Amino acid sequence: MIRQSGTSRNSAFTLVELVVVLALLGVVAVASTSMLGGARVVGSVRAGQESQVLMQTLRMARATAISSFVSVQVETIVEGRTVVGYRVLDPTGQLVGREYRFEPSVATNWSTSAVTFMPTGATNTSLTVSFRGDSADWVVDLLSASGQVSARKVAR
User: Fold this and answer.
1) Please, are residues 125 and 106 in contact by the beta-carbon 8 Å criterion?
2) Is residue 108 scored above 60 in pLDDT?
3) Phi-psi region for residue 102, left (φ > 0), alpha (ψ -120 to 50) or beta?
4) End-to-end Cα spacing for the chain
5) Torsion of the alpha carbons at 93, 120, 87 and 77, rounded to the nearest 10
6) Distance between CA 70 and CA 42 in Å, rounded?
7) What 3-state DSSP class applies to 138?
8) Residue 149 dihedral angles phi and psi, to the nearest 5°
9) What is the pLDDT of residues 120-139, one digit of tens each?
């Protein structure tokens, strides 16, 4: 009888090889999920930042109207049919400060195209602006009677 040295080996994967492949697949799955989730967070953060900047601009316009005893208008900048930003104008139509342009990735919806702050701090109309983020929306509200501005996050 002829004896072969060593043991015979089947052509199959070992348990160690299978565990290594599964671990690598897990790492790839976690990394891809993190990247996709990260993009959603960035979009929502950007929408939140844009809403905060608008809120501060509206408050500044109101304070300017009260302290200068003049009407101050905040109006949208529209290109095509899309609101791409806004500007603050004095009673003569001159630009106060600079025009503000939204990040291209942020979509907005305005209830009206312009609002005017009176020297009393009240406005000629109420305003609601919604900012669309990837996982949440932000809303800026302006009350006409008092001129008070607030921002809130609305989960989807």
Assistant:
1) no
2) yes
3) beta
4) 77
5) -90
6) 39
7) strand
8) -120, 140
9) 999 999 999 999 877 678 89
Quickly tell me which residue has 């891809």 as its tokens.
32
Token pair belonging to 38: 């990260």
User: What number of other Cβ atoms are within 10 A of residue 146's Cβ?
Assistant: 12
**Parallel, antiparallel, or unpaired for β 107-110 and 149-155?**
unpaired
Q: Which of 60, 54, 55 shows the shortest CA–CA distance to 77?
A: 54
Q: Where are the alpha helices (DSSP H) in 4-153?
A: 15-68
Q: Are strands 95-101 and 149-155 parallel, antiparallel or unpaired?
A: unpaired
29-69 tens-digit pLDDT? 766 655 555 555 555 688 888 999 999 999 999 999 999 99
Q: Which among 51, 75, 72, 49 is positioned nearest to 62, based on CA atoms?
A: 72
